[in-house]
Amino acid sequence: MPDPSHERASRFTGIALMCGAVACFALLDTTAKYLNLYMSTLEVAWARYTGAFLFPFIVSNPWTRPGLIRSLLLLGSTLLNFAALRYLQLDQAIAVVFSTPFFVAALSGPLLGEWVRWRRWTAIAVGFVGVLVVTRPEPGTFQPAALLSLSAALCYALYSISTRVLARTDANDTILFYSNVVGAAVLLPIVPFVWTTPTDPLVIALMVVSGAIGSFGHYLLIAAHRLAPAAVLSPFIYTELLLVTITGFLVFGDVPNRWTLAGVAVVVLSGLYLLYRERVAGVKGTLD
Asked: Residue 207, SS3?
């Protein structure tokens, strides 16, 4: 019979790893925004996927069993999100993509048998309200391109759930390798048409670093899903809002307004509540 205290500790460790992964993704987004000033977005994406594709070979040999469908889900999420950003403002796209925890919570029950109860649904909803406070979408401004962002969120939710499934059987480095190889392979023949040769040493370094950051972040993500249910972990992607607000100020001088600060506060409080529920609820076989 499983030890409840051990399972509870595993969940907390998984949450900590998830927060570490999100911190990496916030740094990756900041790096990508900076690199976009010097080159095509496709070239930035190629550098990210290629660096992340090569990184696992430094630490191990991941060439074992492919995870093609999961890799296509990640690439699909990235491409759909990029396509949406051609037509939507950044804040509008972020608001839609952050619906991912709702998809994960809804799909975790039928696909994984990890059912979510009302308290966790409430905390997820409150965190999403915090995102809406920051983005402040206005009535009557819906654009069909928002469906691209919604599809990206669904792809990422399925990617998270498939990560949870593969983490039960496959090694972390194997899953990580196939998360990036598809993106690197698909973008490679396109990059020559948009290539701009970088000359600034900082830009070159950031192109290399972006791959390492992305790879390490996804490694932490995979490790987290090995320890905790997807529905427990997914709401903590909201913490990226706090981290991006900080890095935006430090790197680009973007001063957050009162709406941003209020939304970040709501997001932080919803995350703290989820941690509180993990501590007091224990392991019940369902997620409340």
From this structure: helix
